[in-house]
């Protein structure tokens, strides 16, 4: 038998949120909020970890490894973006832009 889980995500400047409802577990509701956007899905991972704990899942997701991977990927994108911008600056100056 499957487990019913209803999830909704949201975000605004400076925060992300996720709400999960588990009607098969005494109508349990979980609300996870993180006060930052950028490196990864902290509120999503928190909700998943809590659901795994509540339902006593045998899944052993390594959320620390996911967070480290997300941070590394974010840092790489920042470096790539900075390098791309540096390559464009001399071209813009050459075409008469300050």
What does the secondary structure layout of this molecule look like, with pairings?
Blueprint: E1 6-12, E2 15-22, E3 28-34, H1 42-54, H2 63-94
Antiparallel strand pairs: 1-2, 2-3
Give an account of the 3D structure.
The protein has 98 residues and is of the alpha+beta class. The protein has one domain. It is built from 2 helices and 3 strands; from the N terminus they run βββαα. It has helices spanning 42-54, 63-94, and strands at 6-12, 15-22, 28-34. The protein has a 3-stranded antiparallel sheet with strand order 1-2-3, covered by helices on one side. A hairpin with a 2-residue loop joins strand 1 and strand 2 (15-22). The termini are far apart.
Task: State the main characteristics.
3-stranded antiparallel sheet; alpha+beta; 2 helices; 98 residues
Order of helices and strands: EEEHH
First CA to last CA: what distance?
65 Å
The strand count comes to 3
Please estimate the helix content: 40-55%
Poorly predicted spans: none
Class of secondary structure makeup: alpha+beta
Which percent range describes the beta-strand content? 15-25%
The figure for the number of domains is: 1
Overall geometric form: elongated
Overall pLDDT metric: 84
Question: How would you characterize the largest beta sheet?
Answer: 3 strands, antiparallel
Q: Looking across the biggest beta sheet, what order are the strands in?
A: 1-2-3
């Amino acid at each position: 038998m499957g487990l019913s889980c209803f999830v909704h995500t949201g975000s605004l400047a400076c925060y992300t949120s996720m709400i999960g409802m588990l009607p098969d577990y005494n109508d349990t509701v979980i609300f996870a909020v993180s006060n930052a956007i950028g490196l990864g899905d902290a509120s999503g991972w928190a909700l998943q970890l809590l659901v795994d704990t509540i339902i006593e899942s045998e899944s052993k997701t390594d959320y620390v490894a996911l967070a480290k991977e997300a941070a590394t990927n974010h840092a790489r994108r920042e470096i790539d973006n900075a390098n791309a911008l540096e390559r464009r600056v001399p071209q813009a100056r050459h075409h008469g832009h300050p």
